[in-house]
Amino acid sequence: MNNETNQDNQGCERRFFDWLLQQPTISSSHEAEEGLNTPIQPDETSEVENLEADEFDPLDSDAEVFHPNSQRFTLGDIPIVKNRFETVLRERLKAKIQLNPPLFPWEPVGTDLRNEYPDAFEEEQVPIPHLWMAHRQQLRWSIPLPEGVFAQLLAPCQKMLQSGLREGAKLVQSVETLFPNESQPLNELASLVIRGSLRGSLDLTESQPGYETATPEQQMVLLLLAAQEILNTLTLNCGLNQSTVHQEWLTTLGLFTVDVEYVQTEYGATLKILGQLPDGGRLQLLGDQRSASAQRESPGYLKLELIDPEPNQIYRLHVLLHSNDQNPLCFAICPQLIAE
C-alpha cells in the first residue's frame, strides 16, 4: 500500500513539473492576450487542481521563477526553486518587519515606534540648492566665494549673532571653521580688517585674486572681509524713535527685504518688523520669553509687532520660505534705548 502511495505521489510530482515546463503554443499577440485572460483547465485526472493558489503567494512578485521561458530544470533541481522561494519570502518578511518592527519586551502593545523614535525613521534628505547662497554675489569687500565655502562661512556667522564677543573674536571664530589651528594669523588679520586697513588696498576689478588661486593668507583676508559683511547685514540695531533700519538679502528666488523700527506708541514701546518675501513663507521673532510669527502662501509683505520688548536684548528673526526645505536665515534684532 505504501509503495502504491509513493508511486502516486511521484507521478503527481512529475505531472506537476511537466505542466510547469510545457511551452505555450500561442502564435500571435492577440492569442497571447486571450490566453492570459482565459483560466487554465487542467486535466481532470490530474491532482494538480488540488493545489491552492494561495500556497504560492510569496512568489507572486517574482513570477519569473516559474515562467515558461525561464531556464529549464529537472526534478533533481528542486533546491533551485527552494532557494528562490526562501529568498523571496525573506525579502517580504524584511519589508513587513520594516513597516511594523517588533517591540521589545518592556514596550507595551500599541506603541507607535515612529513617534517614540523619530530619528530612526527619519528619511535621508537629498541635498538641494541653498536658497541663501545667491547673496555671495552681493559681497562688496570680498569676491564671490565658491558656494560650498560661503555655506561653511554663513553657518558660524549666524551662530555668532547672539554672542557677546567683540567683533574681532566673532570674525576669527567664524573663519576658524575653514582654517582650524590658525588663530594667531587670523587674529592679526582680523585687527587689520576692523580698522579698514585692508579695504583701501584691494582693487576689486583687477588685482584681487580668485579664491581658488589665492594664497592661504589671501583666503583668510577674503573670508574675514566676507564674515564682517555677513555679520553687519544680519545685525539690526534699532534705537527708540530713531530712523527705520533697512536691510536686504538676495535669495535664489529673489530679494528679501526687512525694515525694523522701535517706536513709542500709545500701547508702549513697540518693535515693528516689516518683511517682503520673494515667495510664500513665514517670519518668526524669537526672544527668551516672548515670540511672534506670521506667514503667507504667496510673495509679499509680512508684519510683526512686539509691544514692550526687553531693551538691549537680542531677538532672533527667522526667515523661512516654503519653496524648499532649508535652514532659516537668521537676523539679530536689538532694540536700544537711546536718549534723544
Characterize the structure shown:
- By secondary structure, the chain is of the alpha+beta class.
- It is extended and about 100 Å long.
- Residues 25-38, 42-68 and 122-128 have low confidence and may be disordered.
- Helix content is 34%, strand content 20%.
- The strands form two sheets. The protein has a five-stranded mixed β-sheet with strand order 1-9-8-5-6.
- A hairpin with a 7-residue loop joins strand 8 (315-321) and strand 9.
- The chain folds into three domains: 2-99, no CATH class; 132-233, no CATH class; 240-336, Immunoglobulin-like (Sandwich), CATH 2.60.40.
- Helix 8 crosses helix 9.
- The protein contains nine helices and nine strands.
Keywords:
alpha+beta; four-stranded antiparallel β-sheet; 340 residues; Immunoglobulin-like; 9 strands; PatU; 9 helices; extended
Q: What's a quick, concise take on this entry?
A:
This protein has 340 residues and is of the alpha+beta class.
Radius of gyration: 35 Å
The tally of helices reads: 9
* Order of secondary-structure elements: HHHHHHHHHEEEEEEEEE
Tertiary shape: extended
Content-based structural category? alpha+beta
Helix proportion of residues, in percent? Answer: 25-40%
- % residues in beta strands: 15-25%
Round the mean pLDDT to the nearest integer and report it.
76
